[in-house]
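Collaborator request log, item 7. Partner lab (contact: R.S.) asked for a structural prediction of GNAT family N-acetyltransferase to inform their binding assays.
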Amino acid sequence: MDIQVVDAPENKRYEARTGEAVAGFAAYRLADGLVVFTHTEVDSAYEGQGVGGVLVRGALDDVRRRGLGVLPLCPFVKSWIERHPDYADLVPRDGPAASAD
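Returned to partner:
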């Protein structure tokens, strides 16, 4: 399955798209140089196919390219980062992110 991850700022979310269909999304808000991920959801038709992981990786790659940090309030995003330590540098160890743990 070909999945493209795109930022949809008008909806305040990253979307995992396959063709014209939105297979999943990661909702966020922007605050103080951080992308605050609040909720991730995968459409039931795409569950168990790796869409969530592709979505989070694509979103975090975009955040890194933009020079921003991440506050993972969403449990899925938080656990994904914990399993992929090469993305841990996106989560500040002081300031707002530290108080969210």
